[in-house]
Amino acid sequence: MAAYAFVEDQVSAEQPCGPDPEADPEILNFLTVAEGRLPASYRDFNKKSFDAKPTLLSLRDYLGKSRDLRFLVLAAKFHMLSDDLPGFVDVLTATNALLSARWDDCHPTEAAGGAELKAAFLRSLDDLPTIVLPLQNATLINDKRLGALSMRSIMVGEKKLPARNGETVIEPSSIREAFLRFEPLDHLTSLKASFEAVVSSLDGIRELFIDKTDYETAPQFDQLLELVRSIRGYVGDIIAIRQPSAAPIEPVDEESTKQSPETIASQPAPLLTVVSVKEASNALGAILGYYAGSEPSSPARLLIKQAHQLVGKSFIEVMKILAPGPIEKAKIQIGGNPPFALTFAQLSALALDEGKRAEDEAEARSYSATTRAEATGLMRQVENFYRSVEPSSPIPMLIEKARNLAAKDFNELLLEVSKKDEEKR
Question: Is the same domain home to 40 and 85?
């Protein structure tokens, strides 16, 4: 947080966080003008004509005089709208540090609205047009063949988002190949570290609010965290493939950092790559064994069990399990003049005649998982295998969701399962 590290320092002994900006008409006017520059809709935003530098310089100047959360939140938005991920990460890290060090003194103080007003300012970090969508569209890498690639490129390619008029849709396999060949690898590891820092800062802010106030007051950042974790997972998968010895993405608990040299030397080698359906099934079984024995309450266990049950299933069988209602009316439109289609009944009859490929079970590796990190590593192996050899399978989707849920606490899970369906933007 180099550019914003000073926010932890006191402004003066009498006023550790400086005077309240509400008493300064010049600052209030500046805030009004700066907020007026923020887009109401990201679709209408023109990044090329957006010059954030003067505003960011003024924000840092005002922060030097008064530690007000509004300055930091605005700085985060201006950095993000400028496609400046490092600056955005710096601001979030500094915000968490300021709240942790000077909760009572940073503005707004209790006298000016306190925790509820603090939370109200911070919740806008979850806004779509100024934070979430700019991050979704932020360039992750530049590929010589495909150009700038963002998380939106990935999501549109994977059909998780609809393409806009005139938007280029790139095949997921092509995007993945671009990430796999991208150099330097250090750029990807730096990206992963940045998104880890975002998650850590937002979680730290939320936990501090829960500790100081209550769960209802604490800002949640649901949309931003979901996106950040998705990007982190995608980049982490690429790093795991290119650098199998890389540490797992999941945070390491404090005890694991206190291992003796003997323990470190005896740790298992990196997981072997899953290369067949039978091995994928064995790996899923090992993951299930871990969750059944160590984390039986985790919803990841249920999603992995569902994925395990879908191994080797045909499209019809998968649809009967996952979407029994819609499948009865499903058709595959073939085209022609006049057009014709294959109905569910016809497809079901075809599926009955399918033979299953025999695999040499003697050569299939078995797996074990005794820690969450090992279970997560196996999840990634199976997910990568199916994305590569059987892209029509829903198994990677189930595993990806299981990974996202695996590290959430009970309160986060309550929010997750009670979320209403929202229109994708």
Answer: yes
Give yes or no: residues 316 and 395 share one domain: yes
Rounded to the nearest 10 degrees, how much is the dihedral formed by the CA atoms of 158, 161, 164, 166? 0
Q: If you search the block for the tokens 């520059």, which residue do you land on?
A: 37
What is the total count of domains within the chain? 3
This prediction's pTM: 0.61
**Cross-strand partners of 343:** 331
- Whether the CB-CB separation of 201 and 96 falls below 8 Å is answered with yes
What is the rounded CA–CA span in Å between residue 370 and residue 173?
32
371-394 pLDDT, tens digit per residue, is 888 888 889 889 888 887 888 899
Q: Residue type for 76, please?
A: A
Per the DSSP assignment, residues forming a β-bridge with 331 are: 343
**282 and 379 together in one domain:** yes
Q: What is the pLDDT of residues 181-212, one digit of tens each?
A: 999 999 999 999 999 999 999 999 999 999 88
Buried b (16+ CB within 10 A) or exposed e, 88-123: bbbbbbbbbbbbebbbebbbbbeeeeebebbbebbe
Question: Helices 53-65 and 25-36 sit at what angle, rounded to 10 degrees?
Answer: 150
| Residues 273, 279, 280, 283, Cα dihedral to 10° | -80
Domain span at residue 295 reads 270-334+363-416
Residue 220: which of 351, 361, 409 has the closest Cα? 409
Tokens of 309: 């049950």
- Please say whether the dihedral angle defined by the alpha carbons of residues 373, 378, 384 and 386, taken in this order, is positive or negative: negative
